[in-house]
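Final report, closing paragraph on structural work. Over the funding period we assembled a curated collection of sequence-structure pairs, and we close with a single example.
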Amino acid sequence: MVKNILLFVLSFILGSVPFGIIMGKVKGVDLKRVGSGNIGATNVLRSIGALPAVLTLLGDILKGTLAVSTGRYFGVGTLYEGLIGVSAILGHNFSLFLGFRGGKGVATSLGVLVLYTPKVAFITLTIWLVTVFFTKYSSMGAIVSFTLLPANIVLFDYDKTKLFITILIALFILIRHKDNIKRLIHGSEKKIGERT
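Its predicted structure, as stored:
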């Protein structure tokens, strides 16, 4: 149990690393004060450019993947692998380095899924890409793909533990996107790549 607690803490710290903020500092931009104020790749793209956005995306994905792989290395089992991954997502959303503020956890959640349930990770990414292609809204892609995440686990990789973990992940994504949902309803949400 002590080992698992230490892994939860380390995963939270790992998840707290704000790659978007780091990219912003390199460019001399305070990401929290420009665009949507979010630290994720979408706001980096709008506010700084494509290459920093790609690096932010990869860094945020890697946080989730490393968290799950660490749990797997120590043989903690499916439940704790998932919970350690969730800890990284919470670290991203409530970063230690940003006064417990942070991003929305989409890329880090995808990074968790890449190792935790690879087939469903691919399906989730595909749904996100297709949704964004047709709507041009990154937030819509996240909302649709992660709302469908638990159903895709049932259909393509059913396991009670994985279902529990993915329900948690989906709930966190939806909660973090509540303002986006309001803006989508009112037609004020910014499209991907659109400058603010």
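The chain has one domain: 2-186. The CA atoms of residues 3 and 74 lie 9 Å apart. We thank the funder for supporting this effort.
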